[in-house]
Amino acid sequence: MTTTLLTDVELLDADGRRGDAWIILDGDRISAVGRAGEAPPTADRTIALPGRTLTPGFIDLHGHGGGGAAFDNGIDEIRAALAVHRAHGTTRSVISLVANPLEQVEESLRVVAELAAADPTVVGSHLEGPFLAIGRRGAHAPEYLVEPDPVVIARLLAAGGSSIRQVTIAPELPGAIAAVRQFAAAGVVVAVGHTEADEKLTREAFDAGATLVTHIFNAMPGIHHRDPGPIVAGFDDDRVTLELVLDGVHVHPSVAQMTFRAAPHRVALVTDAMAAAGGGDGYYRLGSLNVTVQGGIAMLNGTQTIAGSTLTQDAALRCAVDVAGVDEALAIEALTLTPARVLGRADEWGLLRVGYAADVVLLDAEKQVERVWAAGVETAGAGGPDAAGAGVGAA
Ligand SMILES: [Zn+2]
């Protein structure tokens, strides 16, 4: 196995920043980490990286595509979209599926299962639809939303097997609390989202086994002082992680900062990116729906409904630190260790430590991605010297 020594670099992970450091990647693992003054073991190649910062690879719990390609459209489009996000620092991805006809969702689940078995950077699938509140459906087609019936759930679990990593459920739907138990018992991370649930019902869902909130603040009631709703229930429960879409559009930077203050180690920065991420303005599809992207903001045609984002995780980092004023180690934690913990992989993903995966992102002084190693495989970053345009095609 080839060993690579990255030296003369600053390390930044959830434990903070360490200057003048080195790290050795050995195949798909980190085999040694040290500071200047400690002699590193010999390696097959050495790369000096003065003025740069190395972070763990970003883990995206929630995304739908990028570079003009959508995760619902089969294996080639999934691969194309993942390559775009890889160039922006994402090294492990959960593949989110929108509401579609049941047979089509089953087929998508089978495709993701096949891909996850072959590619360690594909974590599995996220059923964002079809168990959503119709009044809070966002960019999910209303005709494909269904109640969380145990027979439907069994069909989906059969199609996706253990590759189904997450499901979003509106707890007020008939049978929803039993569905939370059914999915949790199958090892699936259950998220509350796209919901009208009040605080009490949201707490019931958490007690039944839900541990995540799908893009907190979006597609749910806001905080009211006499009716706190799902947001306060999520803030208040230490068992629960809060997905946040930090693109400057989905939530105000001040609200993002408040979220990090209220739940500092329980925020996961996700993209919820649709096909336009890493692409440009224009016309796109999200599932069966038409979306127009203008000024980087994706809207369902003919509505004022935000249809996913055009975010990449490096941009979320810049927005968190440079715009919202979030501490850099906390922001990095929200992109790395926290999502790893949600997935039950915090012992091997999300830190720059010996034994952890060789998932690392090299950032320049402006937090642009220069190079990426995912499971030890190196690719060019979207902001690096070898990058072509915005990173599209940087395979
Ligand atoms: Zn989504």
Automatic annotation (TrEMBL):
<dbReference type="GO" id="GO:0046872">
    <property type="term" value="F:metal ion binding"/>
</dbReference>
<feature type="domain" description="Amidohydrolase-related">
    <location>
        <begin position="53"/>
        <end position="371"/>
    </location>
</feature>
<feature type="binding site">
    <location>
        <begin position="306"/>
        <end position="308"/>
    </location>
    <ligand>
        <name>substrate</name>
    </ligand>
</feature>
<keyword id="KW-0378">Hydrolase</keyword>
<feature type="binding site">
    <location>
        <begin position="218"/>
        <end position="219"/>
    </location>
    <ligand>
        <name>substrate</name>
    </ligand>
</feature>
<feature type="binding site">
    <location>
        <position position="215"/>
    </location>
    <ligand>
        <name>Zn(2+)</name>
    </ligand>
</feature>
<feature type="binding site">
    <location>
        <position position="226"/>
    </location>
    <ligand>
        <name>substrate</name>
    </ligand>
</feature>
<dbReference type="InterPro" id="IPR006680">
    <property type="entry name" value="Amidohydro-rel"/>
</dbReference>
<dbReference type="InterPro" id="IPR032466">
    <property type="entry name" value="Metal_Hydrolase"/>
</dbReference>
<keyword id="KW-0119">Carbohydrate metabolism</keyword>
<dbReference type="InterPro" id="IPR003764">
    <property type="entry name" value="GlcNAc_6-P_deAcase"/>
</dbReference>
<protein>
    <submittedName>
        <fullName>N-acetylglucosamine 6-phosphate deacetylase</fullName>
    </submittedName>
</protein>
<dbReference type="InterPro" id="IPR011059">
    <property type="entry name" value="Metal-dep_hydrolase_composite"/>
</dbReference>
<feature type="binding site">
    <location>
        <position position="194"/>
    </location>
    <ligand>
        <name>Zn(2+)</name>
    </ligand>
</feature>
<comment type="similarity">
    <text>Belongs to the metallo-dependent hydrolases superfamily. NagA family.</text>
</comment>
<dbReference type="Pfam" id="PF01979">
    <property type="entry name" value="Amidohydro_1"/>
</dbReference>
<dbReference type="GO" id="GO:0006046">
    <property type="term" value="P:N-acetylglucosamine catabolic process"/>
</dbReference>
<keyword id="KW-0479">Metal-binding</keyword>
<feature type="binding site">
    <location>
        <position position="250"/>
    </location>
    <ligand>
        <name>substrate</name>
    </ligand>
</feature>
<feature type="active site" description="Proton donor/acceptor">
    <location>
        <position position="272"/>
    </location>
</feature>
<feature type="binding site">
    <location>
        <position position="139"/>
    </location>
    <ligand>
        <name>substrate</name>
    </ligand>
</feature>
<dbReference type="GO" id="GO:0008448">
    <property type="term" value="F:N-acetylglucosamine-6-phosphate deacetylase activity"/>
</dbReference>
<feature type="binding site">
    <location>
        <position position="128"/>
    </location>
    <ligand>
        <name>Zn(2+)</name>
    </ligand>
</feature>
